[in-house]
């Protein structure tokens, strides 16, 4: 049985819970069974329920084939506790469901969970400095303003396409951005991008933005080593050396550098158990209770691989640096263990990958109030993290560069024109649509012909420059803008009007004046001495 993916949005875990209940009630075969010489109509065996629900979850895109039979039994225990099912005597409320032959049935109506009321956290309004307000002690009246009037020759030398007077303007120096301002900008733009990727109208119902620490985002972006692992300023929050050595031992098996590998069999299982016990005793999961909803929401994007990667990249930036570092080290170790063929099996009955996911899912993602689908949702997320940890736990370069460019823009001087209230360096967003090449060429020509024609006319009618300079400039203009030039001078005659021919006087014939009359040449004889 295949169903559609429950997309991102508020209360996704509740929507999934209700959907699984409805699918299970609709798909579970009911028939007559006998127990202790008595017949019971419309019921099913516990083992039959496990078979049916396990197949249903495996074919469901929201969970997938990695769901184990043991996880299915745990979910049926929650069904029994929440009166989704009951035994044939009507008893429910305890998690004593077992994968055996006991008989169960559906109550007249399985209770669906109501959607929680909208949290009244409100939207957080991030206040930025008032860029129009001058610095203390700075008067805008004394800011020098350069005259905007230029002549045609200056325009020509600067290859301008427009002439005339430029409106008077003044420079307004913005306040310096403090570190707090920069961090708030990082938070605001990061939240905006996350909302865009998730496709939500608001993040209010999946994330309380007041709990997002802007310093964490900034530190997770910049305080990283060559391998992309977060470096902590407070060394007391680092993982203990002995647990780091144990993780390196399994991650690099059989090349253990930090530990001297004992010779006894089962050593790797003892190391694995030690790591599981350490992370199992932490009070809060690495993804924190506050961000549970946002990570469950991201699970709705797993069909769109690139969007899921980007959403998880941004979501992991919100974590405290110490949590992000532990997550990076743990997931990297889990991935290496899962794909390491040289590592002996860590369990006789369970595959290494399944064992790793089950062992660490709860310490990575779980809710504070223990949701009924916690284990299945956490397993789905952890599996995706293991397969894509290098991309997900790296710094998103596109987001980083866009925020850096925006911060640089905010440092620039603002230009105010007379009668204008807009910021010349911060243009409002514009929207465009694709046009054909012919239309583009037409718009380009039409938009630039008027100022170019005005510039050409001024060059042609300028009487202050010499004829030689005028011809030179006209020739250069004709070479650069032949279409505009042809409109003004369609024929050589129209161009010749600018340079009327002067009446030329014939120069007088040159006469050679000989001082002496012409004498014939006489050959002389030379004598050798």
Q: Helical percent range? A: 40-55%
| N-to-C series of helices and strands | HEEHHEEHEHHHHHHHHHHHEHHHH
Contiguous runs where pLDDT drops below 50 for at least 5 residues: 120-150, 159-164, 422-431, 510-515
Shape: elongated
What distance lies between the first and last C-alpha atoms, to the nearest angstrom? Answer: 133 Å
The CATH homologous superfamily name of the domain at 181-402 equals Rho GTPase activation protein
Q: Strand content of the residues, in percent?
A: under 5%
Judged by helices, strands and strand pairing, the structural class is mainly alpha
The strands making up the biggest β-sheet line up spatially as: 1-2-4-3
According to DSSP, the number of beta strands is 6
Q: Helix count?
A: 19
Mean of residue pLDDT?
A: 79
Gyration radius, in Å = 41 Å
CATH topology of the domain at 181-402: Phosphatidylinositol 3-kinase, Chain A
Overall description:
- Strands 1-2-4-3 form a 4-stranded antiparallel beta sheet. It has a two-stranded antiparallel sheet with strand order 5-6.
- Helix 1 (12-27) packs across helix 2, helix 7 (241-251) crosses helix 8 and helix 12 packs across helix 13 (374-387).
- Helix content is 45%, strand content 5%.
- The chain has helices at 12-27, 46-59, 69-81, 152-157, 179-198, 214-222, 241-251, 267-280, 292-298, 305-317, 321-339, 352-364, 374-387, 389-392, 397-411, 437-461, 467-480, 482-488, 492-496; strands at 31-35, 38-45, 86-87, 103-105, 169-172, 414-417.
- A hairpin with a 2-residue loop joins strand 1 (31-35) and strand 2 (38-45).
- Among the domains are: 12-105, Winged helix-like DNA-binding domain superfamily/Winged helix DNA-binding domain (Arc Repressor Mutant, subunit A, Orthogonal Bundle); 181-402, Rho GTPase activation protein (Phosphatidylinositol 3-kinase, Chain A).
- The chain has 529 residues and is mostly helical.
């Amino acid at each position: 049985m295949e169903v559609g993916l429950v997309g991102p949005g508020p209360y996704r875990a509740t929507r999934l819970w209700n959907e699984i209940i409805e699918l299970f009630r609709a798909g579970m075969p009911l028939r007559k069974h006998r127990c202790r010489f008595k017949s019971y109509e419309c019921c099913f065996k516990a083992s039959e329920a496990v078979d049916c629900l396990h197949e249903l979850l495996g074919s469901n895109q929201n969970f997938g084939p990695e769901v184990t039979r043991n996880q299915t039994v745990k979910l049926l225990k929650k069904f029994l506790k929440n009166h989704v099912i009951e035994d044939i005597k009507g008893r429910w409320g305890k998690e004593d469901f077992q994968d055996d032959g006991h008989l169960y049935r559906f109550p007249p109506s399985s209770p669906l969970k109501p959607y929680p009321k909208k949290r009244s956290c409100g939207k957080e309004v991030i206040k930025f400095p008032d860029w129009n307000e001058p610095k203390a002690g700075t008067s805008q009246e004394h800011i020098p303003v350069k005259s905007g009037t230029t002549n045609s020759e200056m325009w020509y030398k600067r290859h301008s396409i427009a002439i005339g007077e430029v409106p008077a303007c003044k420079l307004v120096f913005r306040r310096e951005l403090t570190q707090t301002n920069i961090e708030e900008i990082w938070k605001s733009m990061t939240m905006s991008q996350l909302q865009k990727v998730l496709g939500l109208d608001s993040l209010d119902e999946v994330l309380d933005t007041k709990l997002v620490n802007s310093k964490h985002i900034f530190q997770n972006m910049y305080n990283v080593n060559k391998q992309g692992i977060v470096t902590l300023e407070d060394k007391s929050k680092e993982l203990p050396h002995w647990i780091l050595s144990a993780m390196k031992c399994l991650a690099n098996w059989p090349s253990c550098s930090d530990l001297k590998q004992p010779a006894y069999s089962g050593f790797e299982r003892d190391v694995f158990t030690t790591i599981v016990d350490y992370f199992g005793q932490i009070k809060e999961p690495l993804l924190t209770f506050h961000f549970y909803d946002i990570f469950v929401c991201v699970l709705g994007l797993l069909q769109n691989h690139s969007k899921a990667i980007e959403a998880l990249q941004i979501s992991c930036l919100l974590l405290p640096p110490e949590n992000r570092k532990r997550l990076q080290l743990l997931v990297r170790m889990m991935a290496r263990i899962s794909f390491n063929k040289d590592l002996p099996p860590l369990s006789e009955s369970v595959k290494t990958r399944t064992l790793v996911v089950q062992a660490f899912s709860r310490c990575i993602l779980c809710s504070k109030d223990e949701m009924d689908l916690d284990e299945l949702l956490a397993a789905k997320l952890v599996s995706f993290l293991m397969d894509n940890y290098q991309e997900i736990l790296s710094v998103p370069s596109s987001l980083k560069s866009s925020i850096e460019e925006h911060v640089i823009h905010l440092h620039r001087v603002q230009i105010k024109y007379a009668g204008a209230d807009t910021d010349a360096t911060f243009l409002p967003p514009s929207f465009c649509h694709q046009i054909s090449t012919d239309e583009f060429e037409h718009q380009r020509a039409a938009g630039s012909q008027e100022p170019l024609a005005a510039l050409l006319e001024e060059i042609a009618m300028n009487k202050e420059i010499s004829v030689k300079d005028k011809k030179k400039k006209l020739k250069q203009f004709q070479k650069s803008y032949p279409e505009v030039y042809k409109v003004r001078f369609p024929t050589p005659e129209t161009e010749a009007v600018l340079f009327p021919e002067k009446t030329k006087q014939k120069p007088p014939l040159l006469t050679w004046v000989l001082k002496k009359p012409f004498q014939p040449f006489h050959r002389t004889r030379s004598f050798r001495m």
